[in-house]
């Protein structure tokens, strides 16, 4: 949606919110109650500001317009949740109604153009060389981090080191990967919900997996691993591919390998035994990134599951 012209009416509807997220330094805005906007800006941290115009009715009007635009629907009653993308690629997540104690939970994850330097993410020349070699050598790699730690930004930085001719196939439900320069590559978009595929024309994760396995990728790049796509991602890894990359919500490399994939697969209703064992055999590198108090992100750990060793631990190179 970031590259699609929007109607003046939708732009006008978004204006009360866009006034808060248009600042290029804004990383995220949140609302936990009407009239109060929490902004998180790079370099300054977060603060709460009052905006009386952002009533619950105003937020619901924005969600209804966005739902209609994307063919997803939102009415604040029997469909009180909306997940979609705003102009500029910003991720919009809204929930209203009795499932929220305050009646409103809104988060907009901003995707303003910002590519940090390797120095800004705490990577020495040796670490950059290691990561570049890992990606170029088609090693299977996971970027792990908590919510809003810059996982996708780091993944795009890693992709930037690949030659333009690589056959890179990205699979995600929200377009965030930088794939445009790969002239033999392609980006695939999955329906966020199984039932939503009919209304939007989007394919399910299972359908995209079948296509992916027949499309001859050099690199398979999944977006964020979730309950919807964890089984498909693990199936891709288990197919013998190399050059697999993804991001996952986890606080440590150990958690990424031993808990989160397993948890997401279980929550999806699928079953697959010995998931951590598979990952330990199939994943070459886990890169952990964390956010500091100033809003900047730092690579803190690099772990090799197959060798069971750290290349970087707690920000210190181990010499392994």
TrEMBL record:
Origin: domain of life: Bacteria
Source species taxonomy: Bacteria, Pseudomonadati, Pseudomonadota, Alphaproteobacteria, Rhodospirillales
UniProt record similarity statement: Belongs to the GSP E family.
PANTHER family: TWITCHING MOTILITY PROTEIN PILT, TYPE IV PILUS RETRACTATION ATPASE PILT
Residue ranges occupied by any Bacterial type II secretion system protein E domain in the UniProt entry: 104-259
Protein name as annotated: Flp pilus assembly complex ATPase component TadA
Species, as recorded: Pacificispira spongiicola
GO molecular function: ATP hydrolysis activity
Coiled coil: none
Entry-linked InterPro entries: P-loop_NTPase, T2SS/T4SS_dom, T4SS_GSP_E_ATPase
């Amino acid at each position: 949606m970031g590259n699609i012209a929007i109607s003046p009416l939708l732009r006008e509807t978004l204006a009360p919110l866009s006034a808060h997220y248009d600042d290029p330094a804004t990383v995220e805005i949140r609302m936990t109650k009407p009239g109060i906007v929490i902004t998180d800006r790079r370099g300054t941290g977060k603060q709460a500001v009052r905006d009386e115009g952002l009533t619950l009715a105003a937020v619901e009007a924005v969600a209804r317009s966005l739902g209609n635009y994307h063919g997803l629907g939102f009415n604040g009653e029997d469909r009180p949740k909306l997940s979609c993308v705003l102009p500029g690629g910003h991720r919009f997540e809204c929930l209203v109604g009795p499932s929220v104690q305050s009646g409103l939970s809104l988060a907009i994850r901003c995707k303003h153009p910002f590519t940090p330097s390797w120095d800004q993410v705490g990577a020495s020349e040796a670490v950059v060389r290691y990561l570049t070699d890992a990606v170029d050598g088609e090693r299977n790699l996971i970027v792990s981090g908590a919510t809003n730690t810059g996982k996708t930004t780091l993944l795009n930085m890693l992709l930037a080191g690949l030659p333009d001719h690589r056959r890179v196939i990205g699979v995600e439900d929200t377009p965030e990967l930088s794939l445009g320069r790969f002239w033999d590559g392609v980006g695939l978009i999955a329906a966020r919900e199984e039932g939503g595929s009919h209304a939007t024309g989007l394919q399910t994760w299972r359908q995209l997996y079948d296509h992916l396995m027949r499309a001859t990728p050099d690199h398979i790049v999944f977006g964020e691993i979730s309950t919807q796509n964890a089984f498909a991602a693990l199936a891709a890894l288990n197919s013998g591919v190399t050059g697999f990359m993804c991001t996952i919500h986890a606080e440590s490399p150990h958690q990424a390998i031993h808990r989160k994939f397993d948890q997401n697969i279980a929550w999806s209703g699928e079953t697959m035994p010995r998931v951590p064992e598979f990952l330990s055999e199939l994943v070459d590198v886990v890169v952990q990134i964390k956010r500091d108090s100033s809003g900047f992100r730092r690579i803190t750990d690099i772990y090799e599951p197959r060798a069971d060793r750290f290349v970087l631990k707690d920000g210190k190179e181990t010499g392994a």
